[in-house]
Amino acid sequence: MKRILVTGGAGFLGSHLCERLVASGSDVLCVDNFFTGNKENIKHLLGHPHFELMRHDVTFPLYVEVDEIYNLACPASPVHYQFDPVQTTKTSVHGAINMLGLAKRVKAKILQASTSEVYGDPEVQPQSEAYWGRVNPIGIRSCYDEGKRCAETLFFDYWRQHHLRIKVARIFNTYGEDAAR
User: I need a surface site. Which of 38, 40, 42, 82 has the fewest CB within 10 A?
Assistant: First the structure.
């Protein structure tokens, strides 16, 4: 049985991912600091024998044994990420460093949940992987945009330097009945 870590696991996307992974027979460790995540999103999983919840902030190292990591931790809504922009940047950058370090130590594969915001305010619709974007590194949204860009850089540098098995998913607009939480 795979032991899978989901950071930001009590958030909108993370909670659905945890649910899916538990249903597939995996042992899931959900980590969240509950800044934007909500226990209501995962309360139906709390009694499940293959689900564990840990309150933890990814800006601090985490010492667990896992086979796979899904790094979804970061406030995604402007109202949330602009509330404490320094912490938002730290969550993306320090969180990536800490999760990559963990993945390297335990030889786990790791996925980074990135964003379409890495393109900035694009001049091209839709964006292809060849498009590098039009960014503003000092604007009000930069804490999120640049934090995610730096996290992607770190992921690819760990892949090149340490041969870590990585995936980066640039998630575009997501919505659902719980998305506003």
Answer: 40
Task: Return the CATH fold of 3-171.
Answer: Rossmann fold (3.40.50)
At 119, the amino acid letter reads: Y
For the chain, the domains span 3-171
What separation in angstroms does the CA of 92 have from each of 21, 59, 63, 86? 23, 8, 18, 10
* Residues catalogued as catalytic: 144
CA-CA distance, 177 to 109, in Å (whole number)?
A: 31
User: If 0-12 CB within 10 Å is exposed, 13-18 middle and 19+ buried, where does residue 92 land?
Assistant: buried
Extract the runs of DSSP E, i.e. beta strands, from the chain.
3-7, 27-32, 51-55, 68-71, 109-115, 166-171
Structure tokens at 3: 């032991």
Q: Beta strand pairing status for 51-55 and 68-71? A: unpaired
pTM beyond cutoff 0.70:
yes
